[in-house]
Amino acid sequence: MRWVLALGALLALVPRSADGQVAPVTVFVVRHAEKGPENPDPELTAAGQARARALAHALADAEIGTIITSEFKRTQLTARPLAELRHLNPKVLGAAKMDELIGLLKGLSAGSRALVVSHSNLVPTIVERLSGERIGELTDADYDRIYLVTLTPGGRASVLYLHFGAPSTGTGGPMR
Fold first, then answer.
1. Which phi and psi angles does 149 have, rounded to 5°?
2. Which domains does the chain have, with CATH numbers?
3. Model-level pTM?
4. What CA–CA distance (Å, rounded) separates 89 from 173?
């Protein structure tokens, strides 16, 4: 009987939507903002700094509780304005640690919201591994996209495609 009561108490703590369903996990996936020409670890350009601020503005009310970046300055600097606004310390995870990243995101508690700042060659893989949906490759000029992945209980997922900040200057690849 104690186990039943304990389980009931725990289930009462799981975030639920207005209709009583377990709240989904929401993951915002973006590429880092515009980078400078320095090698191998460039900082953001003035346009990149403006885009990082635009990202913070776009997600200011999204109740982000987790921010994950790669080990590179450009991802960390892109996340910094939102991290400061939300009083969060981003988790730095090596860009090559895809399995660890996906496991961490899929293991977030119900109702969690996370931002992942990654790289043009990794964003499509992250979105596909989380949702099962394939998206178009990003070009070197695609900086204005937010992929909003919603993970619902039972393993279902959906992807919403949005833009933020100034439009990218390149022709860009398809959103899907």
1. -105, 125
2. 16-163 (3.40.50.1240)
3. 0.87
4. 32
